[in-house]
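Q: How do we represent a protein-ligand complex in a form that can be generated token by token?
A: Start from the inputs.
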Amino acid sequence: MTKTNNLLLLLFAWVALLPVQAQDDDPDANDNNLVPNPSFERYEGALRRDGQFDLTEGWVNATDNISELFATDVRSRYISVPESSYGYEHAFDGDGYAGIMTYVYRSRNKTRTYISTQLEQKLEENKLYCVKFRVSLAERSRYATNNMGVVISKSKVSSRSASISNSNAITNQFNPIIKQTDGWYEVCSRYAAKGGEQYLTIGNFESDANTQTETLELPSKYAEEGQISGAYYFIDMVEVTKADADGLCGCESSKIPENKVIYSASVQLNDDMSVNQKIEAIDAYFYQYKSSPVSATTRSIDQIIELMNADPELYVEVIGHMDNEEIALSKSESSLTNLDEDRAKNVVNYMVNQGIERGRLMPKGVKNTEPVSKMKTPLSLAKNRRVEFVVTK
Ligand SMILES: [Ca+2]
Ligand SMILES: [Ca+2]
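Then emit the structure tokens for the protein with calcium ion bound:
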């Protein structure tokens, strides 16, 4: 072999390695993800201010109102990472991220925004896909909202109006108000494809009237800048991948199924009953896997409050119960472990807010040890998801 041949051989080997190395260096190199530029790392042109999301490679704004792209290699304080004029956050992945407004309260110069991309392949009919992205509420937001949604569609989503409504939007299970400002919250959902979908759009697809909001305090470090009169979320690492062989996506909260049954009973109290009997006849009921009182719950609690106000000598044990399905799920879902006590404590807090002295109320939980019904029907389970009241003296 001559010297020249050796050199050629070496060159060839080096060239052959190149594509592999290039892929290893690519932070977006998840072959299974159908979202292009999923972590908002690549853009074209000079990024100088907010309202420049249109520079993002592979993404567009779905309305005339332009979202933001945030990056580390920019001088502008408006859109730099981690500190921008919206808040403070390091990227979930890589260096940059996007930002959208999901809700605006009476502002002339702010509107909701939506971001959209074309998937690298059309989705296949009847296949299950996992849709995930990470969001972080910007610190200067005056509001947090629910309805952080994704629309996956055959045709491009776009609108000339400020907001888009679409009843097919996917949200996280239970569609919570997302309040996380420190770090990233994972929106995760499973999607059954109809076939042929190739566009993905992120935003709030419900009306203001159907959007739940929560008002937030401004962190003191932003006292000078003030609050943004809306809900602004940073968005990073958007993924659409095929579900695994079992059809699962590993969504963190997906273990808690949805259940919309609450038992409601109107108790007939009559003058022949003693106060103790009246109090013990009234139970307060809950939705499955939930510890917060809803209106059906507080109607019952209000009756107890009335009786306790009429007799200031009464002391009452507030006893929380769970149904069998809640007990079963609590073995693997730690947020449900103390659901019985949480129910009792929430009822006590409600009563204290209504003026009952805390010392007159003793909360406790008895898990599922004292069911009122032992059948497995939804109604029977609903009867057991309750807080009871027992007079102690
Ligand atoms: Ca990123
Ligand atoms: Ca933050």
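Residues 87-89, 136, 139, 181-182 surround calcium ion (ligand 2) (CB under 6 Å). DSSP finds six helices and 15 strands in the chain.
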